[in-house]
Amino acid sequence: MTAAPNRPAYLDNHATTPPDPRVLAAMRPWWEANFANPGSVEHALGREAEAAVEAARAHVADLIGAEPREVVFTSGATESNNLAIKGAARFAAAQGTERRRVVTLATEHKCVLESLRDLAAEGFEPVFLPVRPDGLLDPESLREALAVPTLLVSVMAVNNEIGVVQDIAALAAMARAAGALFHTDAAQAAGRMPLDVGALGVDLLSLSAHKLYGPKGIGALYVRRRPRVRLAPLLSGGGQERGLRSGTLPAPLVVGFGEAARIARLEMALDEGRIAGQRDRFLAALEAGIPGLRVNGDRARRVAGNLNLTLPGGVDAQAVMAAAPGVCVSTGSACSSASVEPSYVLRAIGLPEAEARATLRIGIGRFTSPAEVDRAAAELSRAWNGVRHRAAAE
């Protein structure tokens, strides 16, 4: 899959990835030849659709080392995160627990932060832990927070802006020792690094297909079966997905998710090695064109394709992007792109507002070519120099 020469160079793979052609091919029959509802098991076509859904569920489970029955399909990671956090808190409260503390990081995805704020209105105590300047959590901060009886801890495996990888296994062990459930948003981790829910020791884990070359509109939540994690569902309905997520399953999307997970499990190591090479090539070319460029976040503990770069000279990143129409990059999370405020993630790691506004997020992916990398670096360098000189002349 190669981008046409006249198409912009796409380096925004944290916002979304292009669907793998093999995923599109796997989905197509379930739009056309068999469009049956997988819940209609009374007839042959319905049973075929159900079988395809269950095969896909097994592929998703294999990607994270889970049992297929521990995988609950949702519309994406936002819904999975809401179901994990609100569902766990509300179920526990209904059972009479006195634990009200729910802990997360200040750098989490918006849907996690807003879920905790919603729970605050229901009498829970949200705690937002700071991170170090490298974007990683100091385990002592979590240990101190857990001194108060805690219901749930939620920590993102890979940050969606600065790409840093948290030590989920160590943090989950701390939460478990304190009697708290542990949830991780692994949307940016799945397909980019090995995941095994048993080795990680997590109770709940969120996924999204469109972050690993699958379709948009489908995700999953891992819900540990032994010992069993109980959730209150967010939706009322027909009781699909073990009663946790009612609604007709979109068989084509589920099949696409399963195929994306299957490919990721088999090709992840090859993908990430190639992506790391492209990242290093891009960074070297950009540093040559923009002296003084700074990489945000821990340089070693990050996923291969991520670069979060602060431009020198206080040059506004939005202005650089406007001057480089042949490159698709971003200034932060796609979910926050409409905001006029600088990235809260960058502010949380200590960047002043001016530097946060001068920062680009780069996401290199499976289909990024060397030609795209070279073209993007050259165009961004020209744009930065142009914007800088215009600003100096004003």
TrEMBL record:
Cofactor: pyridoxal 5'-phosphate
GO molecular function, one term: metal ion binding
Function in brief: Catalyzes the removal of elemental sulfur atoms from cysteine to produce alanine. Seems to participate in the biosynthesis of the nitrogenase metalloclusters by providing the inorganic sulfur required for the Fe-S core formation.
Protein name: Cysteine desulfurase
Listed EC numbers: 2.8.1.7
Keyword tags: 2Fe-2S, Aminotransferase, Iron, Iron-sulfur, Metal-binding, Pyridoxal phosphate, Transferase
Catalytic reaction(s) noted: (sulfur carrier)-H + L-cysteine = (sulfur carrier)-SH + L-alanine
Family the UniProt entry places it in: Belongs to the class-V pyridoxal-phosphate-dependent aminotransferase family. NifS/IscS subfamily.
Domain Aminotransferase class V span(s) in chain numbering: 10-375
Listed Pfam families: Aminotran_5
